[in-house]
Amino acid sequence: MKKNFLAFILPILCLSQNYELGKVTLDELKEKRHPLDTSAVAAVLFEKGKSYIEYSNSGELKLFTEVETKIKIYKKEGYEWGNKEVSFYIGGVEDENVQFSKAVTYNLVNGKIEKTKLNGDGEFKEINSKYWSTKKITMPNVKEGSIIEYKYVIESPYFSKLNPWYFQYVVPVNYSEFTVQIPESLIFKSYYRGFLTPKLTNEKKEKRVTHVGKTRTVATLSSAASTKYDYNEFVYNELITKSVLEHVPALKQEPFSNNLKNYISSVEFELSSIQYKDSPMELVSTSWEDVVKRVYESNEFGGQLGKESYFEDDLKSILANKPDSDKINVIFKFVQERMKWNGYTGIYTESGVKKAYAEKVGNVAEINLILISMLRKAGIDANPIVLTTREKPFNLFPSNTAFNYVICGIEVDNDVLLLDATDSNASIDILPTRALNYIGRIVRNNGSSSEINLAPKKHAKETYLINATVDTEGLISGTINEKYFERAAYFFRNNNANLTDESYIEKYEKNNNGIEISDYVIQNKRDVFQPVIIDYKVRHTGASELIGGKIYFKPLLHFGMDENPFKHDKREYPIDFISPFADSYTINYYIPDGYVVESIPSELNVKTIDNIGSFSFLIGNTDNHIQIVCNFRVNAPFIDAEYYPDLKEFFNQVTLKMNEKIILKKL
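-> structure tokens emitted (667 positions)
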């Protein structure tokens, strides 16, 4: 029956949709929910893109990208689809340019279609760095039921790489079309991502361009100055590739996901070679070695590493009487505390290291190139590592725009220590989460480079020691010792280091109903080279239930998982835990006089395929004492989707065990 229904409705969707701007219908505005995804907060009714490279009258090539989009808003949560941002490059000889047009919001008012056009108040330009800027629009009068349309055009003198095209989003897409028109002398490679295959069509067309030449003569005694125009027609073949996907399902954001753009169905085009008529082929595609060589030779990158005079006195001072074994920590801590990150990413300096150092503020490149220079001056073999942050998708091919972040790498004993001084909570081998896109490239002083795995190797470790008593009213009280190591300490500091003790306790009690904390003591709150250690007393009125004279409570109290985070039957993209983790619990309960244990959870020891995860739960009961030792580990930060069924079942067993009750009854 379901197949018959879909077979019936899909042709209707195709026939009813007009893929032109300005053709909004009453039926479209009346639609309350998406026919194939009733949970959708919005949907892209159609999106048509065209990238074409054309010869100007003067013979220069330019890239144009035109995009037309029509979006339906179903729910308030979909209002964000009324905003659009387009980034463009401003760091070259000539800037790119973005222009929006035909931006209109349609609403149904008293049975009639009401149009609200975008005015100047809803359009903004934001400079992100000296290389990139963003044009933004905020559509007016967006409501539940609105339809939004807009068009934008990007004009660029740079055509070695086309803007990526996304067929898929986190909301459904009814129709997506991308057309590429390229002179046949320019040979591009295409790279497709995702799990859907577009329908492709190819054709070749003849195109004619008239070149206009202008010659200016100089005035003489016998004749006036004049201008002569020459018109020459140029004929070439244009290759046209059209990619189409229809009824594209939303790629849902699931727990433990990296940037969804890594997995969303999309296509990218890169110029690989140029073959003009009667000329030899010119290879354009570059290698990663070529990319990093150009980066290193740039004055805004490698040129900054040779400067030392601005920090020499400070370096001598901080290293005075320090052993060689402390040099890395001392220099890292000095730069980390002195320099403030201005929020800008990028692999090139903007003000330069000398000015940034003097003003004590800089972008990512300035701060970490200062760190590298100081380490080198101290005799440590430090080199920059360029990478792509998590907010950008992985690069499918070598590109000059592939990298947008730089950190420091120190190669020691077949390992690489990773340092980033832009984050006050980072430490040696503990990078900010934004920098963990798994692969970077180290650029050595001798000109060589190689791929570096950035994935955390050490477990984010948390340990809990709980000693608690249970009284006859079900009140659980006692002492708790918590310790956070490695990335677990980083996460804790990121979330809590700026809170006062009183604010932290208030936050903790608010997030855990029925808890009262006293005698709170924290150690190493800001010392990134030490674990975070917390001791406190607790009274927990919400941890147990009294039913029929019996006391019921969970073995891990509020520290366990309430439900399995993995709910879908299947998953198409990897699971990203950011870091491997290891949680351990040692818990002692002392039960009240007059009560005995009626039931305790059974012991459990379970592992996943290939030991990706493991969980052990040991429990014993002697007289009035219950002791629990529990260990929960995931041993890989990044897990392929093929392991999802096993991982889901593993987490299901863990969750069930954590929620199984201890039951006490009266004698």
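The chain has three domains: 2-157+199-245, 288-453, 460-666.
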